[in-house]
Amino acid sequence: MFTCCIAIKKLNENQMTQTSFYNIICVFSLLLLICCSLNVYFFNNLQSNAPKNDVRNGEYAKKINPNQALGTKSNQIITRSKAIAVQNAIIRKSETLSAAFRKRNPKYLAIKLDLVNCFLPKPYNNSIWKTANAWLQANEVFPYNDKTIGAVTSAIRKEPIRSIKNSRRGTQLKLVLELPGPQFLLFKPSWYNRNDIINGTVYSGKDRHNSEIVSFHLAAVLNLRYSPIVAGRMISLRNHMEFADDELRRTMKVINNQQCVYGSCHYCKSDETVCDDPTTGMLEGAALYTIPGKIVKHRSPWQRTYKTELMAEWERNDNYCAMIRKKLQYNILLDLIDAAIFDFLIQNGDRHHYETREDRLLFLDNGKGFGNPFIDHIDILAPLYQCCFIRHTTWERLLTFSGGALTETLEELNKLDILYPLLTKEHYLALERRLLYVFSTVSLCKEKHGNKIFK
Ligand SMILES: Nc1ncnc2c1ncn2[C@@H]1O[C@H](COP(=O)(O)OP(=O)(O)OP(=O)(O)O)[C@@H](O)[C@H]1O
Ligand SMILES: [Mn+2]
User: What sequence ranges are listed for the domain FAM20 C-terminal (predicted)?
Assistant: First the structure.
């Protein structure tokens, strides 16, 4: 292609405008050539028996555009192209996965029934918080297969509110609800409708309250019980005005006869309010059980730069995982890989910090999931494809929920929440598509390293 350009260029030596036009074509072709070669190189590395000149044209793969790299420094072009090649190999592999990954595994049925029995709303008494607070074991927030889970979610949804405060934790609007006990809940209000689509970067937009609820359900399904217990809850700002503290009350105002609030936090603005619904008089949101005990915050090794022109080390360094492995406790690294899979499924690309309890990872702050069902940010999976290992238990559990069982089970749990429906059909389809990408990533790793990838 390049030689061809030179030949054409020679023919037009005396035509200034055409020459510069062909110069641009040549530079462009050269960059294209680099991208293609790297694609082939990575495909060879990840998957030895794959076709070498396969060109991506799948609907979702189109979202990854190698031209995004053009116009930046040449080493960044190469690095970004490498990442794109890995991601394209994952997408391509998902199309040739064996039938077992697409079929339902009969094992899931009994687990689904158990989960539904656990999550079924149930009556509770005043020892409910004592019970829930005794569940904590390191990062495990709720037990495996315990029917009292449905009693705790009922209490989260129904216990009367004694006071409402503005939470100073984090950067977005959150309320602290005090219930008898006392027991505290964090309330993340609804900012969006279910079918709203968040465009922009992977971390764009405000928290999605439905994402917090579905994440709790997903944590149970995947048996990664590290997320807070969450239930949908309706509150009336108007009726609870008298329970609000002064700081919060100062940010409450009536707009079009609706009671609204904007709160005080880093991103809180007086013109960005949430309000009681004009017909029901209620504001919906996700109510999060507050996890007791000491929680420690750490910078994520896979933190983004939050600047499109700047790449983080994990995006540049081919041996990043080996380096991190030397620095981090092995269990934490395995937890981070579990978290990457969890975040990839929900599409939370905003886990800038991770938080631990007794040296194990919690899945806190799941509000940035389910923003756009038509896009898959595969780089959320970087800890998995860069390290190329995964806990054996996580892998087995994922395999149990293949072929549509994951979303079928989630749907049954979602149905038990008062805010059902929690997700649109498109989000369910996206979850299944992403699960296949997790399967293909692990399959590529297995082809390269064998069974030792299962830890
Ligand atoms: N359920 C919970 N139990 C205990 N602590 C919690 C819980 N949820 C959140 N927190 C604490 O509150 C902090 C802020 O919460 P969260 O991260 O959800 O808010 P945020 O506004 O999205 O913050 P950021 O902008 O930093 O992402 C968390 O870092 C965590 O330490
Ligand atoms: Mn957040």
Answer: 256-451
| pLDDT < 70 regions, the chain | 1-73
Give the number of the ligand closest to the Cα of residue 170.
Answer: 1
Give the residue from 290, 291, 294 showing the smallest Cα distance to 185. 290
417 is in an annotated binding site: no
ipTM of the complex: 0.99
Q: What is the pLDDT of residue 26?
A: 46
**Per the annotation, does 415 bind a ligand?**
no
Paired strand residues for 353: 299
Measured between alpha carbons, how far is 222 from 400 in angstroms, rounded to an integer? 9
Q: Residues with beta carbon inside 6 Å of ligand 1?
A: 169-172, 186, 207, 228, 288, 290-291, 295, 355, 364-365, 367
CA–CA dist 104, 263 (Å, integer)? 46
Q: Is 329 annotated as a binding residue?
A: no
Closest C-alpha residue for ligand 1 atom 28: 170
The closest residue, in CA terms, to atom 26 on ligand 1 is 170
Question: What are the residue boundaries of the structural domains of the chain, listed by start?
Answer: 97-449
pLDDT at 27: 57
Which residues touch 257 (CB under 8 Å, ≥6 apart)? 278
Q: CA 175, CA 165: separation in Å to the nearest integer?
A: 6
pTM of the prediction?
0.86
Locate 431 and state its tokens: 């979850």
Comparing CA positions, the residue from 120, 34, 41 lying closest to residue 77 is 34
